[in-house]
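> call design_seq(struct)
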């Protein structure tokens, strides 16, 4: 079914929730809605319980840190026989704060919680994003009461990003060590000056030592670009819908 037809998922969401949705977008076949933290539980309940949507399954809940989002340290407009250039050495995340980030101010808040839903009956997927209102104490409602599987997903986002899921039945760290300080997936997390743990076979116990295994490196996921193959794929998809 084409997303441009009257019965598209995006249009049905707009008709049902109206101004409660802060943003609705369908891109590359993926529909995304954005809701305020105060509206998340009511919207999520409707998405789960109403037969028109019937999103019975949570595929994933993850945190997002938009510090430096869209920043490009790679030259991606051209390519050589050895790939895209890594010759540019710009400011990487961690060398600036949220207010001083080197990008346009079109991302008003830093942290978000993203939920990926699946409707088995309708064969539809939906991405629900909720921004945390406070950058210093990122807080969103927990969905574990609606989908119990969200329990460990939310603990992971809490552990790695510091997002607090209000109403979670057991919000504890799940991946890092009990005595770990900090949130490893925040883009301003220091790579030096911390300690890590490992098992020492000679001492036959867990030992703490300064971090030595993490090195700064240029990453690609923040880069937003339109590759030639994606442009061609969109053009072919448009031709397909026109023909049918």
């Amino acid at each position: 079914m084409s997303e441009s037809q009257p019965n598209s998922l995006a249009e049905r969401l707009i008709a049902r929730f109206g101004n409660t949705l802060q943003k609705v977008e369908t891109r590359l076949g993926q529909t995304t809605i954005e809701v305020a933290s105060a509206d998340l539980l009511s919207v999520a309940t409707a998405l789960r319980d109403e037969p028109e949507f019937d999103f019975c399954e949570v595929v994933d809940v993850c945190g997002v840190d938009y510090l430096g989002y869209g920043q490009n340290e790679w030259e991606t407009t051209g390519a050589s026989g050895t790939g895209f250039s890594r010759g540019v050495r710009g400011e990487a995340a961690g060398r600036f704060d949220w207010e001083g980030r080197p990008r346009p101010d079109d991302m008003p808040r830093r942290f978000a919680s993203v939920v990926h839903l699946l409707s088995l009956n309708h064969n539809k997927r939906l991405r629900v994003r909720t921004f945390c209102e406070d950058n210093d104490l990122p807080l969103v409602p927990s969905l574990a009461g609606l989908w119990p599987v969200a329990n460990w997903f939310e603990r992971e986002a809490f552990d790695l990003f510091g997002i607090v899921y209000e109403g979670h039945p057991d919000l504890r760290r799940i991946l890092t060590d009990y005595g770990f300080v900090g949130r490893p997936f925040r883009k301003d997390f220091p790579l030096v000056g911390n300690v890590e743990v490992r098992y020492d076979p000679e001492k036959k116990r867990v030992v703490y030592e300064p971090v030595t295994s993490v090195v700064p490196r240029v990453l690609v996921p923040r880069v937003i670009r339109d590759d030639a193959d994606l442009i061609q794929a969109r053009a072919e998809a448009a031709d397909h819908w026109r023909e049918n």
